[in-house]
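Problem 12. The chain below contains 217 residues. Write out its predicted structure in token notation.
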Amino acid sequence: MNRTVYSIEGKELRSIELDDAVFGLPVNEDVIWYAIHNELANKRLGTASTKDRGEIHGSNAKPYKQKGTGRARRGDKKSPVIAGGGTVFGPKPRDFSYTIPKKAKRLALKSILSLKVQSDTLRIIEDFSIASGKTKELAGVLARFGPGERTIIILKDDDSLVKRAGANIPWLRFLSYNRLRAHDLFYGRRVLLLETAAKNLNAFYGPGGIEPGEGNE
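Solution.
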């Protein structure tokens, strides 16, 4: 498919060919959910911890005798039914991370890219850099492509000056073409794809591209 390349002033420059095997696939919602769920699980710290009744400090003695008081039978004050007692089946430190097949992850990312093209929320812009590293200059570029909303810029490389310029924009995220994240990409309301990054995506995810396990995703 052909898509328009825009200048940083928002003017049409030329057309670029996007690989249908990357940007024109049917959207697979199941595999997208699978990839996003995996990323969120891998980000969990798993450091939450509670104390069960065996870890609570206190006496093991009954607070009053079993019978004759007219009150309910009770164990020690570490019982989970008493305020300040132990927790039943509470969380303990654990590892929530798991892996998914790399082919599934690649399919999810290509499905999201296809979804952004179909919903017309993806714009291809000419390669640019922010030599000054100032937020004001980058904000001016973003303003030409729509109002301030959750925006993803897919870079062709690790441009530290552009990233520094966008560090103070809370609704802006940066991704590299070979390190895409399904969660950020899916929930981005606007995706700005640099021209060279678009060509790299054609080669990286297209037929004959890097096989799963060879690239750094």
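Discussion. The helical segments are 20-23, 29-43, 102-118, 135-143, 160-165, 182-187, 195-205. Students who got a different answer should revisit the alignment rule from Section 12.3.
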